[in-house]
């Protein structure tokens, strides 16, 4: 388990036993912003625009004293995010994405994720042959091909959020994306207003010899005008590469199938985390393990495997809690009884404290 600190310290703990004991530590030049592991190497993104790459020594132990530093360009800017994409690492640097080959420790490919040079890539989420990219202070998600780096799709979430929640009542001046995750065959999007949206991922575009034949998700063509409606797809581009396998999965999405959660945060969604899990919440608020299914008639093996569901827990973290159906009102209820009237209220009300919201998602793996 690797932990990076704002003061530049990097700590390595055991993920098996005795978690509290620090096995290795080293002081780096600047704040640690992101960590990824791929094929025996750990890449550490720093706030000064450099990338520290660690590897194991001949004895099989991590050698923190011998690491390689990569400089991604001048003038230096923070490396805001990284994502493992197959055996490569995508790094968000200014308005660009750098594709790093960890073994050779070289930049293999660079491309602009946004035309404005002052923009910043903030989140990356990979699944199949696609990588979703978000830009700081922007409400549009961009999909790129994992191998060809071709721009495939743009999706703007602002019309959908405005339609569902309105713009005046909750004071939404604009919508910006602050958290991004792929889990449970869905794209999870968190905004600066505390809104959580999940969008089903599907191979919506049927491609044949580089031709765009149709959309499975919303049964429309991007040239039919449906994509221009609020919350619809802005652009869908064909993938004209002929060397990709026919079974490759490109995670397109459509806001027509999006779901907005009315439980959110009062401030920006800070992060998403997904873990395998299956729980049931009872009426009194306690959490119990889901009971195992009892014995029943045996289904054919192929049919049983095809219909087998997986369960995943998705957690969002942020400051405060709000039910968007009610609004931003405080819970002013006072308990009746013999309580002390002069009791001092807590510094932070329940709605203002930091919260973690948990969803359980059942899905069939691709």
UniProtKB/TrEMBL annotation:
InterPro entries: JIP3/JIP4, Quinoprotein_ADH-like_sf, WD40/YVTN_repeat-like_dom_sf. This is Mitogen-activated protein kinase 8 interacting protein 3. Pfam families: WD40_2 (PF19056). The lineage of its organism: Eukaryota, Metazoa, Chordata, Craniata, Vertebrata. GO terms for molecular function: JUN kinase binding; kinesin binding; MAP-kinase scaffold activity; signaling receptor complex adaptor activity. One of its GO terms (biological process) is vesicle-mediated transport. GO terms for cellular component: cytoplasm. It comes from Cercocebus atys.
